[in-house]
Amino acid sequence: TMSEKNIMFVIASLFAFSILLFPNLAEADILIKKNKLTESTVMGQIQPAKVEEGKTWIAKNKMREDIAESSIIVRLDLNKIYTIDHSKKTYSEIHLPVEIDKVFPPEAKQMMEVMRIKSSSIKKTAETQIIRGWLCQKFLVEVEISMMEMNLPMKMEIWTSTGLGIDLDAYKKLSGAILSLNPFTKNLAEEFEKIEGYPVLTISSMNMMGTETKEQEEVVSVEKRDVPAKTFNLPKGYEKIPYNPFE
């Protein structure tokens, strides 16, 4: 079954990944550092908080996102995306544009039949604040997922900035392709286009079968620096496995 963490990863993380893909972002390569805090309560019991550091490297037509033991490498020059699990030394290869019937294994297709997005909304608020020196605007996202006759509400508070020098038109062209990695985010692509700017701070919450999970992801720094070409290559010796967005 698909855990609450998986669902939040599918919607929140893939959205975040998509925003980082700008083939003409800048002449210089870019390194983005961020922190992610996860808190959960299971049947009223507060679980230990988890703090993870993330890094994103961006070069022309290429991007790599690392968080904990997972990586996503995007190679627009090859029309491919790689998802990597360093703990298991495995990777999956996805061709763009994504063809669900060819890419997804049977268990993923079965999960798609019992899950769907019931409703979604994005609202731009009048609230602004300075975060890490960037003037940010607040957006509210509400998504309701239907799974086996259960309704799973998810809320996201996204603070974005247009002051990072990012080519937002390039983002809108690319986000649909990246969000198509998963059928749920594919359906949200049009909604997410309403969000203006780059997500500096994202706060997500979801309640599923007695487990409440909250995630907070914040950009710590954005710097221009040369990124070695090998950063965007697959690790040697890893085993190739079928891509499954529900694992």
Based on CA atoms alone, the radius of gyration comes out at: 17 Å
The coarse silhouette is: globular
Report the order of strands and helices.
Answer: HEEEEEEEHHEEEHHEEE
Estimated helix fraction:
10-25%
Question: Structural class, from secondary structure content?
Answer: alpha+beta
Beta-strand percentage range: over 45%
Average pLDDT confidence is 78
How many runs of DSSP E, i.e. beta strands?
A: 13
What is the CA–CA distance across the termini?
9 Å
The low-pLDDT segments are: 1-5, 16-26
Largest sheet: 13 strands, mixed
Number of domain modules: 1
Number of helices: 5
Protein name: DUF4412 domain-containing protein
Pfam families: DUF4412
Domain DUF4412: 60-238
Organism: marine sediment metagenome
Structural descriptors:
DUF4412 domain-containing protein, 247 residues, 13 strands, DUF4412, 5 helices, disordered N terminus, alpha+beta, 13-stranded mixed beta sheet
Could you explain how this protein is built, in words?
Helices cover 21% and strands 48% of the residues. With 247 residues, the protein is α+β, with helices and mostly antiparallel strands. It has one domain. Strands 1, 2, 3, 4, 5, 6, 7, 8, 9, 10, 11, 12 and 13 form a 13-stranded mixed sheet that branches. The longest helix has 16 residues, at 4-19. It starts with a helix and ends in a 7-residue tail after the last strand. Mean pLDDT is 78; it is low at 1-5 and 16-26.
SSE order and pairing:
Layout: H1 4-19, E1 30-42, E2 45-46, E3 50-59, E4 62-67, E5 70-75, E6 80-85, E7 90-95, H2 100-103, H3 106-114, E8 115-131, E9 134-147, E10 150-161, H4 168-179, H5 183-192, E11 198-208, E12 211-224, E13 239-240
Parallel strand pairs: 7-13
Antiparallel strand pairs: 1-2, 1-3, 1-12, 3-4, 4-5, 5-6, 6-7, 8-9, 9-10, 10-11, 11-12
Pfam family, one: DUF4412
Domain DUF4412: 60-238
InterPro entries: DUF4412
